[in-house]
Amino acid sequence: MDQIRLFLIMALGVVLLLIWQAWQRDYGPPRDRPPVETETLPAAPPATAMPAIRGSGEASAASTAAGEKIRVLTDTFDLTIDTAGGNIVQAKLRDYPTSLDQPRDPFVLLDDTERLFYVAQSGLLGGAEAPDHHSPFTSERSSYELPPGAGALDVPLIWRSSSGIEVVKVFHFTRRSHVVMVEFKIRNHSGRPWAGELYAQLQRAAGRETGGRVPGVVTYTGAALSSPEKRYEKIPFKEFAGNPLSRDIRNGWAAMLQHYFIAALIPDPDETYHYHTKALEDQRYVIGAVGPEHVVPAGGEGTLAVRFYLGPKTQDTLERIAPGLDLTVDYGALWFIAKPLFWLLKRFHALTGNWGWAIILLTVLVKGLFYPLSATSYRSMAKMRALQPRILALRERYGDDKARLNQAMMDLYKEKKINPLGGCLPVLIQIPVFLALYWVLLESVELRQAPFVLWIRDMSTADPYFVLPLFMGATMFYQQRLNPPALDPAQQRVMQLMPLVFTVFFAFFPSGLVLYWCVNNLLSILQQAVITRSMERDKAAL
After folding, report:
1. Are residue 266 and residue 296 in the same domain, yes or no?
2. Which of 41, 301, 456, 491 is most buried by its number of CB atoms within 10 A?
């Protein structure tokens, strides 16, 4: 088999696989993994009709009267709570700047403006005796700040009914944490028992983000659901209207995902919640969960709580918060290869303190592990290169007689004991590893705004001066010089254009990915040059 044709097929195959994985992330079936919990959970009760939540079908923020805005400052959050409903209507992540050029501007994850509209809502169901996410709350203060040295901060809101029901909605914040616990303390001063359910939901407009998306790279933006049977299940926004979710789940969670960041609601894992989705007007979507009914006797008190995670998709942190939450760092179908690669990448970062050098060390390690396979491929190409004069002579002898030419070439390969597929299979085996590493570098929030050296200030964005893409194209061009030239002039012209095409293609890729390909090309050139020279010194072996 002609090696140049093989190279073209391989390049096309890599591009098609990348496109396929991007499609899978948005439209393909969810990745199923064994449940984290191994114990048998009690059977969930039969699904019931979704309780009506007043105003949940309203389409715009303008339809709800705005209340007083309460600002909350912690070491991780600059957060705004609206007393109308007691909802989190804005969440800025103080430990994640919007960009390197705006280091003082925190990344905005939630916002209730028309530009984004992405909020976290919660409330109680119980008619006039319970506050939902539109009910007016009162607050003693308009701002709260985590004191220096303090480990926690509580922000209380109060709601009272005319019948004597008092609800204190408390937002609990913890230092160095992106988890917000929302607790409802119900005090029943009436003369009869109080009954109601806790609910929480995330509402956002599709396709609107304040940042975090890498230009030229397609990642999943949509909802996700977790249950003990299926720990990570993507729910694209297009399914909200045609196939709305209605499922009872114990020990689960629901979330809205985007590149690098996540907002998740995590109910009490010991209770069964009814999860649902709903499509609103103006391309807004809701995913939420309603808990079981709780009764507070007359004169008694009760407490209900739900957690929200509002922050980056940091695997170690997510894994500790809820089972399967770390799977939102979506490596696709090759997760079983990607996770060990990310573990190695973290170890190298711990040694070097720089994600760029960690990528280089990981590339060297992977290339070294595959050296025996690469050597087989390079030896096959070296033998093919040595036979080029004889193959050209056969081409001149048989002219346009393709059948006799192919037979003569196969006889020559058999005589010299060359397997024309010898350079193909080793490369095919390595492709899954390369693709898994691609998604590791793409999905890891740790590389966001991580500098390398000199002009590379952010490895999650494209090289501003295109130095790495140009260098990658140059190494690719040089690699071609080490391979057997194509016999067909048309193929030669195509091969001459390949470095240029890939240079333009990689010019918009995150610089961390381009760095990996540059180092991989350099190591391939070194390995191939060493093997080719050793075989040229021993002509008898050919």
Report:
1. yes
2. 456
Sequence-distant (6+) residues with CB within 8 A of 258 are 209, 212, 213, 219, 221
Residue 258 falls inside a structural domain? yes
Among 71, 70, 92, 75, residue whose Cα is nearest residue 150: 75
Q: What pLDDT does 3 receive?
A: 41
- The pLDDT, as a whole number, for residue 11 is 52
Is the model's pLDDT at 370 over the cut of 90? no
Q: Tokens representing 254?
A: 């629901």
Residues 6+ apart with CB under 8 A from 50: 246, 274, 276, 290
- For residues 499 and 517, give the distance between their C-alpha atoms in angstroms, rounded to a whole number: 13
Determine the average pLDDT of the residues in 8-16.
50
Structure tokens, 372? 């025996």
- In degrees, to the nearest 5, what angle opens at C-alpha 334 toward C-alphas 331 and 338? 65
Structural domain includes residue 289? yes
289 is in which domain, residue-wise? 37-329
Indicate if the pLDDT at residue 58 is higher than 90: no
Whole-prediction pTM value?
0.80
Q: Looking at the predicted structure, is the pLDDT value of residue 433 above 60?
A: yes
CA angle 526, 389, 392 (to 5 degrees): 120
CA 104/CA 98 separation, integer angstroms: 8
Count how many domains the chain has. 2
